[in-house]
Amino acid sequence: MSTTVHDTRRTSLAHSANDEIANEKGKSATQHHTYDTYGDEDESADIKYRTMVWWKAAALMLAETVSLGILSIPSVFASIGMVAGIILVLALGGVATATGYVIGQFKLRYPHVHNMADAGEIIAGPIGREVLGAAQVIFIVFLCGSHVLTGLIAFDTVTAGASCSVVWAVVTAVVCFVLTIPRTLDGISYLSVASFISILTAVLITMIGVGVAGHTGTVKVTSNLEFYKAFLAVTDIIFAYAGHVAFFTFIAEMKKPEDFPKALYALQISDTTLYLIIGVVVYAYTGEHTVSPALGNTGTILRKVSYGMAFPTIIIAGVINGHVCAKLIFVRIFRRKGPSSRHMNSHTWTGWLTWIGICAAIWILAFVIAEVIPFFNELLGVISAIFASWFTYGISGIFWFHLNPPERRFSSWGQTLKTIFWGFIILVGVFIMIAGLYSSIQSIVDGYRDGAFASPFTCANQAI
């Protein structure tokens, strides 16, 4: 018996030693193939990026996601009916939570991932890197353009068209550019708190206003719209949850990336609740007369007050998107497969001039496309159909399959159900892209037929 015990102990120790060797090999392999985005940030670093706690990340995510998306929700309810609106807000919000969680898990598996381009390289090599990187830049620049356009609408509304709308677009773009200049997200996170308070106050004023005015329209439980018109409304809800495009960058600047689920749950509980409340309340009172953006549903005075209160969120949410886009390009320039340049972590002329130049280019381009393209909102629908369908939904399914090799996908009933679910999510992304493209293009055709589009660089008052 003594010999057996000793043999058992020796065998156990041998297995433990082998496990330790395997673990060390795994660690060294991981360290060889991965690296941190911002290099070694010791105390001597001039610029420290990984400084955000989870609630600051949540504030950034909330400001970026809720800002403009919430303003379209009441008109969605008016288009597709109360019941369908509630169901879609809850369902798409739930799926957006699941897909956001997978993005967090993908980032933990690959610490060097800073943006969708890095993730694309892991999934599909150099081609995947270029395709997803370009898609992320294009999508975010158009989002910045939407903030420029909303900014000029807000100025026109508050000032009753006191100046040429192009001037207000320039003012919005310049303010956004200046606020984008800080190099880290930690500083901007404080602005995001002001952004959330801003949009919350604006929608509260709107809800109080429509409540005081009383019921002015009929509420529909269901709707019988043409497919493309109904799906255009659905894309507004999809756009309202389209913050995932920036998640990798947010996580990269967190002190503890493993805390990302806390920030994600705070975001999804808050935005879903807000979308339901404003959608139900505003539509219940205004019915078929509901307009988008939602702040236009009150009388003239309250409308001006609402837009005045919404200025911070229009600006700050645009700043967050602009910062994420600039950071993607900046990191691409100064990081080369592992070690980062000293220009990334130090106050150098090269680093700062490059950063400021990138920020300026983004906001100039955002201003131009918002002003030149007469059907900008419809084109934004096309861009959202192509990119938001994947960044918010479909690509997380691809990430999940990458994180779960074939031998694990059907290892149990639970894994089988997950495999089916994430396969379905990929198909949802494909469907949203195709249906969204068809609906948005049809809307552009209708707009030209009806003469609904303004001319480029128009000075006309664009107040709602």
Automatic annotation (TrEMBL):
Keywords: Membrane, Transmembrane, Transmembrane helix. Residues 1-39 are annotated as: Disordered. It is a multi-pass membrane protein. It is found in: Membrane. GO terms for cellular component: membrane. Residues 52-441 form the Amino acid transporter transmembrane domain. InterPro entries: AA_transpt_TM. Signal peptide: none annotated. One of its GO terms (molecular function) is L-amino acid transmembrane transporter activity. Belongs to the amino acid/polyamine transporter 2 family. This is Amino acid transporter transmembrane domain-containing protein. The lineage of its organism: Eukaryota, Fungi, Dikarya, Basidiomycota, Agaricomycotina.
